């Protein structure tokens, strides 16, 4: 799969959305190309079998919390599909315990028909290596599943295969949704400051909060995510002969910075946090200095004073900000309109603004972001499922029409949201409280996006920008996928140990993080770190030797 054809995959997906300039990559996305959505009867009948299938209940396992009126939406789904799918969905929302619960269920052989997994800090590749997931390639580009065929072009499917098989279903709207910082506009005006555009200006704002409103937390962040999971203060230089923060190779259990020769044909080394200086010494400058790769951790320590004192216990910073107890919060640009409504309703006289902290994205500069053309979020069918065909038929229904997709993404029209034009939506705060579904776990797709009617023009422009190839540079080793099978035991040992320390690092809670990382590194080596490193270098070199880039 070459880079050009992979890039075309996302463009093929959004070619049906016609007007990218209006499509926002979010739960404010729209089907910009669909004219009139088919009626419920039409969309159901399109895949109607000759006889009603026997009833079945599918077990689904998702990450987030259960929407208040999820059962009402499921009842509507059952009503619409009684004569065609005859399927009930039993959804367990595991929250932050998803990874642990899925592992326990797999170990026990417990039935799970569909689950969620992801890259980054997720376990997608590790779980594939453990043999947790069914291969699904036969269901795509298959006329028996027209919804899947329409929504997932062959290029996208090929790009997400591992060793010739598709073990996960890519949920995508753009290769990257830009991160932003929401902050209280009313406080900014109170302090006599101009609208914030940079991190330096934002720091002035937080200093003002600390002095003039000490009862507020200057900035709310999540304990395991910290300063945007490594993206805030990250080096914005185009990565040409290195894969490092914030674009680490997934699936290794430990984040390695992989350094290549200038011609991209040889692996010069793979280093990680806490490695001794001697491991860096023979790498080309500037990678021969650990501080070049980890300077952002010093920034986190400097900025830790703006976080709440018990940040290591904070797993829902959005609530802290929405309730008026914090002056700022980092998230992504698509949430702006909804957060604004919450703040205005909860706090008399309050309002919010935002800025994009990646300066290249903020200025719509070409090659602002790196991509390997593989989405972050994925749906998976575990091997314990005995109803793979029926599960895939449900997914086929969800992706067969705008109306079907809307049901899970937004809920029941008129009750949970209001349609605005052909590709827009709006919803009140009360509607959002009744039904806010983690659509990136089940129904996200560029073909069926809707745009929040309250989204401001600049946000729309930024989201249009990240829909174009011009916004990205292709990362080195873009199509390399680490096969964790040879070192799955070692990964299983190092991952939980590293997980104990990561909240300290990502929130800047440890001023002595270098010493802590050194000691942690020694412990990880005793658990198999160097074996994982050697396997990674071996596989990357084999990939390069076969012409990979």
What would you note in describing this structure?
- It contains 21 helices and 17 strands.
- The strands form five sheets. The protein has a five-stranded mixed sheet. Strands 1-16-15-14 form a four-stranded mixed sheet, with no helix packed on it. A three-stranded antiparallel sheet has the order 10-6-11.
- By secondary structure, it is of the alpha/beta class.
- It has helices at residues 3-15, 40-45, 70-81, 98-108, 124-129, 146-151, 154-159, 185-190, 199-212, 277-280, 290-303, 317-322, 336-346, 359-362, 388-398, 402-410, 429-434, 457-465, 488-506, 513-527, 529-545; strands at residues 29-30, 56-62, 87-93, 114-118, 169-171, 179-184, 242-243, 256-260, 267-272, 328-332, 352-356, 369-371, 377-380, 418-420, 424-426, 450-452, 472-474.
- It is globular and about 70 Å long.
Briefly note the structural class of the backbone: alpha/beta
Rg measurement, Å = 23 Å
Q: In this structure, how is the largest beta sheet organized?
A: 5 strands, mixed
Terminal CA distance: 11 Å
The strand order across the widest sheet is 3-2-4-13-5
Low-confidence stretches: 1-48
């Amino acid at each position: 799969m070459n880079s050009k054809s992979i890039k075309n995959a996302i463009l093929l997906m959004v070619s049906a959305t016609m007007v990218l300039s209006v499509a926002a990559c979010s739960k404010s996305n729209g089907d910009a190309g669909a004219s009139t959505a088919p009626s419920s009867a039409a969309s159901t009948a399109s895949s109607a079998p000759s006889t009603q299938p026997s009833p079945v209940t599918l077990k689904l396992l998702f990450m987030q919390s259960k929407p208040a009126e999820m059962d009402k939406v499921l009842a509507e789904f059952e009503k619409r599909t009684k004569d065609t799918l005859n399927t009930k969905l039993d959804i367990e929302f595991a929250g932050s315990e998803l990874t642990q619960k899925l592992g326990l269920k797999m170990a026990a052989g417990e039935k799970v028909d569909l689950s969620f997994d992801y890259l980054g800090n997720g376990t997608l590749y590790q779980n594939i290596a453990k043999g947790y997931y069914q291969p699904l390639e036969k269901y795509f580009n298959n006329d028996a599943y027209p919804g899947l065929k329409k929504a997932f072009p062959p290029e996208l499917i090929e790009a997400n295969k591992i060793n010739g098989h598709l073990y996960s279903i890519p949920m995508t709207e753009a290769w990257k949704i830009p991160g932003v910082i929401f902050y209280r506009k009313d406080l900014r005006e109170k302090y006599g400051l101009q609208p914030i555009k940079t991190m330096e200006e934002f720091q002035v704002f937080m200093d003002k909060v600390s002095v003039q409103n000490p009862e507020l937390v200057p900035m709310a962040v999540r304990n395991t995510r910290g300063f945007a999971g490594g993206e805030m203060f990250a080096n914005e230089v185009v990565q040409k002969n290195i894969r490092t923060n914030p674009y680490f190779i997934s699936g290794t259990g430990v984040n390695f910075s992989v350094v290549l020769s200038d011609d991209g044909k040889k692996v010069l080394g793979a280093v990680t946090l806490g490695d001794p200086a001697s491991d860096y010494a023979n790498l080309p400058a500037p990678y021969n200095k650990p501080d070049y790769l980890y300077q952002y951790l010093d920034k986190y320590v400097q900025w830790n004073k703006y976080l709440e004192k018990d940040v290591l216990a904070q797993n829902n910073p959005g609530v802290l900000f929405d309730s008026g107890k914090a002056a700022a919060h980092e998230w992504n640009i698509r949430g702006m309109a909804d957060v604004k409504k919450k703040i205005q309703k909860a706090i008399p006289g309050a309002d919010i603004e935002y800025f994009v902290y990646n300066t290249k994205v903020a200025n719509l500069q070409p090659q602002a972001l790196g991509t390997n053309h593989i989405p972050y979020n994925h749906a998976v069918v575990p091997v314990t499922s005995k109803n793979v065909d029926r599960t895939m038929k449900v997914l086929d229904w969800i992706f067969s029409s705008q109306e079907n997709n809307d049901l899970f993404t937004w809920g029941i029209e008129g009750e949970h949201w209001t349609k605005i034009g052909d590709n827009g939506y709006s919803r009140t705060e009360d509607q959002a409280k009744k039904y806010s579904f983690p659509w990136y776990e089940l129904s996200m797709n560029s073909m069926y996006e809707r745009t929040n009617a309250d989204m401001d023009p600049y946000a729309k422009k930024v989201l249009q920008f990240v829909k174009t190839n011009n916004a990205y540079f292709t990362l080195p080793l873009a199509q390399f996928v680490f096969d964790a099978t040879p070192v799955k035991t070692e990964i299983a040992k190092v991952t939980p140990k590293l997980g104990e320390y990561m909240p300290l690092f990502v929130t800047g809670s440890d001023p002595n993080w270098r010493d802590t990382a050194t000691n942690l590194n020694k412990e990880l080596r005793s658990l198999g770190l160097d074996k994982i490193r050697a396997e990674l270098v071996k596989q990357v070199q084999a990939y390069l030797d076969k012409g990979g880039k």
